[in-house]
Amino acid sequence: MKGCLVLLLLLLGTVSALYLEKDVPHLGDLETQADLSQDSEGSGGQEGELALSGEVLESGREEAEDTHDDEGASDPDDLDEDVQCPKEEETVQLLGSPECKTCRYRLVGTPRRFRKAQRVCRKCYRGNLASIHNFNVNLIIHRLSTTTNYGQVWIGGFIRGRLRCRRFFWTDGSYWNFAFWAAGQPRFGRGRCVALCTRGGHWRRASCKRRLPFVCSY
């Protein structure tokens, strides 16, 4: 009788162990889940991923430095009535390109802040600061930019949002699907607007309050 009772207890213990093993995650599973969680939090950390996703991760110190640089996040449709259109001799016009024969670009050599430059593009040319979606267009705009004596020109990229919610946008509302950042950009850059370097054609973040020549597309 005692032998049967011992056997019954052993069977019950085995069944309980199997039940617990089935319902409780293994340590290895927990480690895997933790690794995936860490990978997810760290995704977008590489500059190539940042360039395509438009995400910008920065420290609180950098956030504080950009607090007074919000012009780029303003509504691009907010136009001033007192905007004076550039004279023809202040601009360089490019009509069409092999990639887009109906596209027109105009470099305005008179330096303006980002927001004012966008207003000029909208009011004077019925367009926007140039958005760039492939390398060939970037090359065209880079070549156009070399006609100015400044080291940088405004294009239509800007940052909207705060801290980890920051993302890049184009003033014309088109999709952010291409970038040509200089080394260390955009992660270690400053400013909420995007400028194209006249040497090399790479992009850098810059304070929206800087006065630069700019390229309109229309």
Automatic annotation (TrEMBL):
Domain C-type lectin residues, every copy: 105-217
Bias (Acidic residues): 63-82
Sorted UniProt keywords: Disulfide bond, Lectin, Signal
Molecular function (Gene Ontology), one example: carbohydrate binding
Gene Ontology BP annotations: immune response
Superkingdom of the source species: Eukaryota
Residue ranges of the region described as Disordered: 35-82
InterPro entries per UniProt: C-type_lectin-like, C-type_lectin-like/link_sf, C-type_lectin/snaclec_domain, C-type_lectin_CS, CTDL_fold, EMBP_CTLD, Eosinophil_major_basic
Secretion signal span: 1-17
UniProt xrefs under Pfam families: Lectin_C (PF00059)
Record's protein name: Proteoglycan 3-like
Source organism of the structure: Bos indicus x Bos taurus (Hybrid cattle)
Organism classification: Eukaryota, Metazoa, Chordata, Craniata, Vertebrata
